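User: Hi! I'm working on a homework problem where we have to compare a predicted structure to a textbook description. Could you give me the structure for the chain below?
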Amino acid sequence: MASPSNLNKTLFVVVLAAAISASLGGCRRSRTANSNNNTQSSFVSGDPEEAKRQAQSLVEKGKELYRNDQDEQAAEVFKQAIQNDPDNAEAHLRLGMSYGALDKKDEADAEYKKSIELFKKRNSSDSKDASSWFYLGEAHSFLHQDEEAIRAYRQATKLNPDDEEAWYRLGMALTRLAQYPEASSAFQKALDLDPNDTRASDGLDNAKEGSQRIKEGKKHAEDMLKKQQELANANGNMNSNSSAKPSPKRSPRKPW
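Assistant: Happy to help. Predicted structure tokens:
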């Protein structure tokens, strides 16, 4: 028969072994759970259509993070979207915007250029996709390519005349190129669709002021040219009158 002391020792060893086993099991479960989470976050479906759907779902999630100023998290989500669908043009555009918010200009510009390439490819096959043309305009705008942006925004408004944001963006691009009358028209279209858009209202005021400055500048230039012409004509008349005067006659030379 075991003594009480030996029995207590045996019980202690059994309890300790059980505790260690439970702890190791918990660690294994934790590692497994983390592994499963990581695998799930980077999972790419073997079905191309499913991968595209997953990518677009991630784009929507990233947009929400971006709107909430969670730019680093948004960038990571957009990267996952691109991993699922490398040809998702909006994912590249949105990743560029996130990089821009993080002051990563070179990375942002690279993503904008990639999105332009993909949007142009899409537009060549489906030119009736207004949103694709709008996003193409956005990418060009971020790269300060305003002429190209204007062409894209115009096509977007042509395909969807009720897109107030496209009219506003078109007005801004036209303003940057000092095309104020056209910008005023675009801002007015935006206000017709949404009278409460203070951005469009401010843009319209600025465009009208720009048009007025150009008119005043042209008038000033015309006045200066007119004055220069009048001065040139006056100088010409003076020179003509001077050359028309008879030369003074010399007195005859007296003989010695």
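For your comparison, note the following. Residues 49-124 form a domain with the Serine Threonine Protein Phosphatase 5, Tetratricopeptide repeat fold (CATH 1.25.40.10). The longest helix spans residues 198-244. Good luck with the assignment!
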